Amino acid sequence: MSVVTRFAPSPTGFMHVGGVRTALFAWLYARKHGGTFILRIEDTDKAREVAGSIDHIIESLHWLGIEWNEGPDVGGPHAPYLQSDRLETYKKYALELLEKGYAYPDPFTEAEVEVWRKQAEAEKRPFLYREHRPASLSTTWDGTVPLRFKVPEVKRYEWQDMTRGTLTAGEEALDDFILIKSDGYPTYNFAHVIDDLLMNVTHIVRGQEFISSTPKFLSLYDALGITPPAFATVPPILGEEGTKKLGKRDGAKDILEYREEGYLPEAMMNFLALLGWHPTETHAEGAEEVLSKDALIEAFDLARVQKGGARFDEEKLLYLNREWLRTLSDDDYIARGGLDASDPKIRKAIHLLKDRAATFGEARAMLAGELRCLFEAPSVDRALLVQKEPADTDSFTKTALTDLSAIIEKLPEEPAIEAVKGAVMPYADEKGRGPVLWPLRYALSGAERSPDPFTLVSILGKGESLTRIEKALAIL
Ligand code: GLU
Question: Which residues form the pocket of ligand 1, taking CB atoms under 6 Å from any ligand atom?
């Protein structure tokens, strides 16, 4: 039997880290086993729907490199993949359940049910609709009231979860839940079971919030006379401190915001895969793994997904992103970072960016900040220029810059960093590193913080460097 997994988001807003991680685990498992991965949109709660969510979901998954074999945009043998386009199918199965005595039209008003619910709450016991189920049930349903499931057997359920092991729940978890609402739409509880059946889904990967409803699903599988798929629960994602659930600040934010901030999808996928899973049996906290898409597919296993919450570690994400940025060729770095490919200085500065920036966002900020001096001649302040001048001299800096001009003059037009260093250092060692290198770096950069002077001369080139030194000498 070939593996079929699905990601079944509701279009109720943007995709956040947790949603994407669930999709990723389901996808990795399908790819690992050469199976099928389906994207299904669960849009049966019209009140909660947010316009644009479906496009956003698709764009987010595309960005990460998670592709699906079947889905609303690509079609497939089980189309349609939008639940709102499948109402007739749910109705057909609902009527079948009605006919078999496993469903009945809700005879009560919402107000009546609300009274019972309140009463149960006051008595601190769970509200169970089935306790109010009328003795004689109507066998016809006109669709104007909800259709409810009639639990076939009230019993304790035990089931296997691929990540949690054996799970069990008793009678309190079983109830006559709504199959089809009075607006004609099915509930999640009903629709996903039908769709997973018709789409031949073999493994359901989802969050732990569905564990408590699993007995309801199992009783429905029983009524339908089908064997349920395998269940695999992914752990919750916890905030930085590793205690409470992930909040927006720690990363429950729109996944596409990471794209805007200059994270690479390779790094994001790598990071998400390690949220609750690790390729090796034992690993020290912080033993980061840089793993490509293919390596992840190769190593992934649902059985080794952890039970406990996974900590969202921003530092680790930055680390992985920096590592992934370093794997890019200079051309790719420029193209993917949206940098100006026509500026040769940018090309020369890439090693600095790779060294220091963890995201393209940081790289862009560096180019606009501490590296701006590469693109714009700085203005130089006399007091700062001479601030390392040894006491009792008043022309040391002037002499040094003049001598350095002569030294740099002998370099090739576009000297390598090492060549600049080789030429300048003996002089600096002889006269004093601080008093020599400071004015040189400051004359070139006009900034108190910048790359070292050798790097600056190398990137600026001989001509531009000499012009800047000349300008600094002019104010002395
Ligand atoms: N539509 C559900 C959600 O977005 C999917 C749950 C499932 O995967 O079965 O939470």
Answer: 8-10, 42, 188, 192, 206
